[in-house]
């Protein structure tokens, strides 16, 4: 008999007599109950490998992106200081390549966010381009109109500076929560940019309609009205135009590559061209997704798998007859006036379910007792080197709420995961992004300057071990298992 238990598989073999079988069944049932009576996030599977730890740089202003550059430096965006900083990984020395002067930052979801390096940077091809995504205030007066802009800069190696700004795409909708903002230059020569759902239908924005399923009209695209670009993954030509081979969705070709997203904060291409994304879940079901053109990833009607476990869509903005503004938000107990839809009610075609979740809870999980099961996934990368045995074809995901890097081993074709997540580098930090050295020997992790996380004792804390830092984890060896007597 096989029993599936939110992230674990229990196998009980029945044989010989019905009494033995009954005893096995009771043992399996009690084991299932024991495992379910806790937060699945707190069932730890640490990896056997050993790493040394070194702080490369500290006192950075909320580093958001860290990328290994062709110059051997780490390129970092500092979200709240609007700086692009180049770090020497050997000694931590730094050079500020650019300070954005027209950006806007007020909350923890805005400011200078994603950075993408053109693959021809410093190759003598005349394309020394660096792309940035950041928020700005489009209102010239005292009012706030928060928007996102993608801008291209040219790197001058003589001055170690970014200059010659060219706006690629702007006036993208932005808000004070779930801002996405990860940008990536793909092997197909296109830019990929994640846009969050603005925190709609949640916390302070619970009366804001969620538009992750909304699609633009042809007239809106013609008018350059990007208001439907919420909860989407965009694909752009390097000049900001719409690629001719972008999918036609709802009868319209736009920048939208996929939709139905909550908040993608990690994007990474594998050597074979497959694109992976990490995405925030609500109270459970953070996702690792394989991105496919034109697909619908389900949010807000589905979180994680379509399994009716731990989530149903409560549409607060559609409350009737009591208007949403008259209600007090309670994520666990919406009032009767708020329509609720189970995941199993989904009937639309084209749904893409995740490769894996972190973590799915049992159907009867007690959130009030055990807390939410999210890791708050941020940056990801694909490990393809041979330096660490067994790691090739793995996806690494940073957890902000757990101070952990999770490794998922992919199947040979990269279309599924092979087993559950293995944990590394647990500490009292908020891991925002990571970069891998070309030889695969070192992993560099960027940490937030402040915020809530979980320490190695699974206790909630705001006392961060390495605030605003780049931390290097260098592979040493695999732990030797003790010989059994």
Overall body shape = globular
Side-by-side strand order of the widest sheet: 3-32-29-28
Give the fraction of residues assigned to helices.
under 10%
- DSSP E strands, number: 32
Largest sheet: 4 strands, antiparallel
Radius of gyration: 23 Å
Work out the helix count: 3
Q: How far apart lie the N and C ends?
A: 31 Å
Our estimate of the beta-strand percent is 35-45%
Question: Structural class, from helix and strand content?
Answer: mainly beta
| Overall pLDDT | 92
Low-confidence stretches: 1-34, 481-485
In short:
With 485 residues, the protein is mainly beta. It contains 3 helices and 32 strands.
Task: Provide an overview of this structure.
The chain is mainly beta. It contains three helices and 32 strands. It has helices at 18-36, 218-222, 367-370, and strands spanning 2-5, 8-11, 49-57, 63-68, 74-78, 83-87, 94-99, 112-117, 129-137, 146-156, 161-173, 183-185, 191-195, 232-236, 248-249, 252-253, 256-259, 264-269, 275-279, 286-291, 312-314, 340-342, 356-358, 377-383, 394-399, 404-409, 422-424, 431-436, 442-447, 453-454, 460-461, 470-478. The strands form ten sheets. Strands 3-32-29-28 form a four-stranded antiparallel β-sheet, with no helix packed on it. It has a four-stranded antiparallel β-sheet with strand order 4-5-6-7, with no helix packed on it. The radius of gyration is 23 Å and the shape is globular. The chain starts with a strand and ends in a 7-residue tail after the last strand.
Map the helices and strands.
Blueprint (H helix, E strand, L loop, with lengths): L1 E4 L2 E4 L6 H19 L12 E9 L5 E6 L5 E5 L4 E5 L6 E6 L12 E6 L11 E9 L8 E11 L4 E13 L9 E3 L5 E5 L22 H5 L9 E5 L11 E2 L2 E2 L2 E4 L4 E6 L5 E5 L6 E6 L20 E3 L25 E3 L13 E3 L8 H4 L6 E7 L10 E6 L4 E6 L12 E3 L6 E6 L5 E6 L5 E2 L5 E2 L8 E9 L7
Antiparallel strand pairs: 1-2, 3-32, 4-5, 5-6, 6-7, 8-9, 9-10, 10-11, 12-13, 13-14, 14-17, 15-16, 18-19, 19-20, 20-23, 21-22, 24-25, 25-26, 26-27, 28-29, 29-32, 30-31
